[in-house]
Write a structure and sequence with these properties.
Layout (H helix, E strand, L loop, with lengths): L3 E7 L6 H8 L2 E5 L12 H8 L4 E4 L9 H5 L6 E4 L9 H7 L2 E3 L4 H19 L2 H9 L25 E5 L3 H10 L5 E5 L5 H6 L3 E2 L2 H7 L2 E4 L13 H4 L7 E4 L8 H9 L5 E4 L20 E3 L13 H15 L13 H8 L10
Parallel strand pairs: 1-2, 1-3, 3-4, 4-5, 6-7, 6-9, 7-8, 9-10, 10-11, 11-12
Length: 358
């Protein structure tokens, strides 16, 4: 039986369980330097050499040498790039599609559901002045202070209309937030050109364009993947449309927000605040102005999805099974670039790497 060659460009399985599973199936593994904790791994040139003749690439997030067209072109045998994470922004998906290569990802509910819950937590923390009240009591020895009143989120029978929540993206995370917040009886707006109109109705949200959402929302929350289209989709122009009392939440990808423009908007009180789990450059630099904006910002070290029972484990196992399926000539159940499947099936469908003539 010939060996299938796999580059694990950013290993994350500390137990080695999935590595042993792949080796037992007849795979030769090449391990890169990057990992979840240290995403700076091999250079592109090193990756190109390691990927030569590979049937599959897999791993967690990698920052300094994303899976580029050049890396994928280094092997004409390459069938699949499998990510342990839900995000595929460090893979040139368009190039993979052009080359007829599957890109698989790990949209495990424990992770994306955690992002939805974490987003709501950030919103409540800021609107209810949770940090400020705690500090006022513990450090200042104070008691009730009317300047620490919170915001009531939902509409009321006394005529109070409640806040307007704006969701940029109505995929798994955005729609989960809409579902969880619906009983609060607030107005929810959403924009997403890639989901059908009936999904907005199903989740009780009003479909609007992005400028309308920015102008009318008290809370704007991003739930998009990072693409050429979404990179810096929130910059100075968009921030200028927001209400002075509004807050921006980003738990999607850092580069979706132009960080310099956001910092300026916060310093000038153009918007009231921001909650950020992701940043343009990670980890966040020690001299970043975001660290000095006090309660105007709520910062988290890119771990909004980290909860008990979540993490990379489910994604690692899912990616491993996806790679094995692709090596057998089968289409996995978590393909991100689904448009490539017909072409891929013509190239590899039903043909196992271990039985080239089958």
């Amino acid at each position: 039986m010939s060996a299938a060659k796999i580059l694990i460009f950013a290993p994350a399985d500390e137990t080695g369980e999935t590595h042993r599973k792949l080796e037992a199936a007849g795979c030769e593994l090449i391990l890169g330097k990057a990992s979840w904790d240290t995403p700076q791994g091999n250079s592109e040139a090193e990756m190109i050499e390691m990927a030569r003749g590979c049937d599959a690439l897999m791993g967690t997030s990698i920052r300094n040498a994303p899976i580029s067209q050049r890396i994928m072109q280094s092997s004409d045998r390459l069938r699949i790039v499998a990510k342990y994470t839900i995000g595929t922004d460090d893979v040139d998906v368009e190039a993979a599609t052009e080359l007829g290569i599957l890109v698989a990802h790990g949209p495990t509910e424990s992770n994306w559901g955690g992002v939805a819950e974490g987003t709501i937590t950030a919103m409540l923390t800021m609107l209810k002045n949770v940090r400020e009240r705690d500090r006022h009591l513990k450090q200042n020895g104070g008691w009730r202070d009317q300047t620490l009143q919170g915001t009531y989120l939902g509409s009321r029978a006394d005529g109070y209309a409640g806040i307007t929540l704006g969701l940029i993206g109505l995929g798994r995370i955005g729609s989960r937030i809409a579902t969880l917040m619906r009983p609060w009886k607030m107005r929810i707006l959403a924009t997403d050109p890639y989901v059908p109109a009936e999904k907005f109705t199903e989740h009780g949200v009003t479909r609007v364009d992005l400028p309308t959402l920015l102008r009318e929302s008290d809370v704007v929350s991003l739930h998009v993947v990072l693409t050429r289209e979404t990179r810096h989709m929130i910059d100075a122009k968009e921030l200028a449309l927001m209400k002075p009392g509004a807050i921006l939440i980003n738990t999607s990808r850092g580069p979706c927000v132009q960080e310099g423009a956001l910092i300026e908007a916060l310093m000038k009180s153009q918007i009231a605040g921001a909650a950020m789990d992701v940043f343009e450059h990670e980890p966040l630099a020690l001299d970043s102005p975001l660290r000095n904006l006090g309660d105007k910002v709520l910062l988290s070290p890119h771990m909004v999805s980290s909860n008990v029972g979540s993490g990379l484990g489910p994604g690692i196992r899912w990616a491993t099974d996806s790679v094995l399926a692709a090596l057998r000539g089968e289409v996995p159940d978590n393909v991100y670039n689904k448009e490539v499947i017909p072409r891929w099936q013509r190239r590899f469908g039903g043909r196992s790497v271990w039985k080239p003539d089958a």
